[in-house]
Design goal:
By secondary structure, the protein is mostly helical. The chain contains three helices and two strands. The protein has a two-stranded antiparallel ribbon with strand order 1-2. Strand 1 and strand 2 form a beta hairpin. Bound molecules: zinc ion. The site of zinc ion has 8 residues, from helix 3.
């Protein structure tokens, strides 16, 4: 192996290491994800793609907290928020 090849190899290792750290950070949050709805405690399967897409996941990175709400409870919460005027009924819930 000549010097140039070795350097290229070093660079590759550094790059993959950076990627791992990023992944680990995301996995950390993934681990924090509860496996039930915060409100009704319905089972939440975070490995289920469909569930992940339909349930509402609220991530607060600073607090390192992740909360999940099933679609039904989320709908209820939105309804209540609208009733108290916390959000306006203009389809800006997302
Ligand atoms: Zn629920």
């Amino acid at each position: 192996m000549n010097r140039k090849q070795r350097r290229a190899k070093d660079r590759k290792i550094k790059k993959s290491k950076a990627k791992t750290t990023e992944m680990e950070q995301k996995l950390g949050l993934f681990d924090l994800m509860p496996n039930e709805c915060m409100v009704c405690h319905a089972a939440f399967d975070k490995t289920n793609k469909e569930m992940v897409q339909t349930w509402n996941v609220v991530v607060r990175e600073q607090e390192k907290s992740v909360k999940v709400y099933c679609p039904r409870c989320w709908g209820e919460a939105i309804k209540i928020l609208k009733e108290v005027g916390a959000i306006h009924d203009e389809g800006q819930t997302k």
